[in-house]
Design goal:
Blueprint (H helix, E strand, L loop, with lengths): L7 H4 L7 H10 L8 E6 L6 H12 L6 H13 L6 H18 L6 E5 L6 H10 L4 E6 L6 H17 L5 E4 L7 H15 L11 E7 L3 H5 L7 H21 L4 E7 L14 H10 L5 E4 L8 H18 L3 E3 L7 H18 L39
Parallel strand pairs: 1-2, 1-3, 3-4, 5-6, 5-7, 7-8
The structure holds coproporphyrin III (HT9) and fe (ii) ion (FE2).
The site of coproporphyrin III has 25 residues, from helix 3, helix 4, helix 7 and helix 12.
Main location: cytoplasm
Function: Involved in coproporphyrin-dependent heme b biosynthesis. Catalyzes the insertion of ferrous iron into coproporphyrin III to form Fe-coproporphyrin III.
EC number: 4.99.1.9
């Protein structure tokens, strides 16, 4: 599949020396009509110890998480001073996006709202309404399709719109697990992690692709045909492995594994858990491991606790050389991807047929979800961004 990035960097006439042509081109490639804002939609996290319990209550309301699991997860947060890294990472992403937009001549204010912590989505929509925002594109900080990463955010948005008279119209941008702006930073992070290992044994390394576990049933219901969560991760993983092969000349052994399982033990969730997987690697004769948290776009608590703390300790105990690949974070390619997604969707809404960048075995994701896609595991609720 063609993977040339779309956008101004390709068509900019370098060295033509005609300021007006440059200006015209950049304006043409930065037409975000009909959007007058971008809304960053995220999970939210606690910022101080007193926030931890109310945050966890928000996350788990009515979800049947056993109390002992909540105590355990609370400890993860308290271990880091009661502060999740996620809000600061979203602040950094917004700053990077503002700089990227400005450099591209895109004048679009950026707002931020969360599911589980301040700033809550409804407060932000109120601010947007007060500022006269009429229609906004929504970038969700989850790259893959599942109830938790897709529909639940669309339900959150529908509820917030409902609560705010005069709220702007909202379009959720497509899932981006296979956008080159996401895949390329993961490839480079994997290469950088591999480079920390001794060249003489480097090719024995296992690439351990890690994402958030979800219930098997949630995976089965994800996407229009079901199974999209695992299918999208598998496709992204295969693409990264192939690009690493192209760079290094070696096709590394690799697997898709999971972290952060919660929920009652009798309910099956996606496996293997990363720690169990490392045990298997050790039992099979040991190998260096590069842990690649490609299910997360930045270093969330799952990454700094479940991987950097827990899985790293497991690897150490087992004597496996361990390196953790960086997340996309504010890599300039990832930041530019957000801009491309806004402009792509804006063009689609205007009735144009923009090129939709996607790499690997799956096409670019759909803009609007089918009503039966990623169903709510409890009871159906109104959700934004679907067909019909
Ligand atoms: C697919 C997925 C993503 C990726 C998509 C996305 O990014 O949205 C994600 C992200 C996140 N999950 C997060 C935190 C938590 N998730 C929990 C619980 C759960 N997650 C689930 C799934 C996912 N979660 C599920 C099926 C549950 C069971 C309860 C339920 O059905 O909803 C719990 C409860 C305690 C526990 O059991 O772990 C916590 C505290 C944070 C913040 C981290 C930080 O502070 O940096 C982030 C970014
Ligand atoms: Fe979660």
């Amino acid at each position: 599949m063609d993977n040339t990035p779309q956008g101004s960097q390709m068509t900019r006439p370098v060295g033509l020396g005609t300021g007006s042509a440059l200006t015209r081109l950049s304006a043409m490639h930065s037409d975000s009509t009909p959007y007058d804002a971008l809304l960053l939609v995220s999970f939210g996290g606690p910022e101080k110890p007193e926030d931890v319990v109310p945050f966890l209550e928000n996350v788990t309301r009515g979800r049947g998480i056993p109390p002992e699991r909540l105590v355990e997860v609370g400890q993860h947060y308290f271990g880091f001073g009661g502060r999740s890294p996620i809000n600061d990472q979203n602040r950094a992403l917004i700053e990077a996006l503002q700089a990227d937009f400005a450099a591209a001549g895109l004048e679009l204010p950026i707002y931020w709202g969360n599911r589980n912590w301040e700033p809550y989505l409804a407060e932000t929509l109120q601010q947007m309404a007060d500022d006269g925002i009429k229609r906004a594109a929504c970038f969700v900080t989850s790259a893959y399709s599942s109830y938790s990463g897709c529909r639940q955010y669309r339900e959150d948005l529908a509820r917030a719109v409902d609560a705010v008279p005069g709220a702007p119209e909202l379009d959720r941008l497509r899932a981006y697990f296979n956008h080159p702006g996401f895949i390329e930073p993961v490839v480079d992070a994997t290469l950088a992690a591999l480079a920390t290992f001794d060249p003489s044994t480097r090719e024995q390394t296992r690439l351990v692709f890690v994402t958030h576990s979800i219930p098997d049933s949630m995976n089965a219901g994800s996407g229009p045909e079901g199974g999209a969560y695992v299918a999208q991760h598998t496709s992204a993983m295969d693409e990264v492995v192939e690009r690493v092969r192209a760079e290094t000349g070696h096709r590394y052994l690799h697997d898709l594994v999971f972290c952060s399982r919660s929920g009652p033990p009798q309910v099956p969730w996606l496996e293997p858990d990363v720690n169990d997987y490392l045990e298997e690697v050790a039992a099979a004769g040991s190998a260096p491991v590069v842990v690649i948290p490609f299910g997360f776009i930045s270093d969330h608590m799952e990454v700094i606790y479940d991987l950097d703390t827990e899985a790293a300790a497991t690897a150490e105990r087992l004597g496996l050389p361990f390196a953790r690949a960086a997340t996309a974070g504010i890599d300039p390619r990832f930041v530019a991807m957000v801009r491309e997604l806004v402009l792509e969707r804006a063009a689609t809404v205007r009735g144009e047929e923009p090129r939709k960048s996607a790499v690997g075995s799956l096409p670019a994701c759909w803009d609007l979800c089918r009503p039966d896609c990623c169903p709510n595991p409890r009871a159906p609720q109104p959700a934004l961004g679907q067909l019909g």
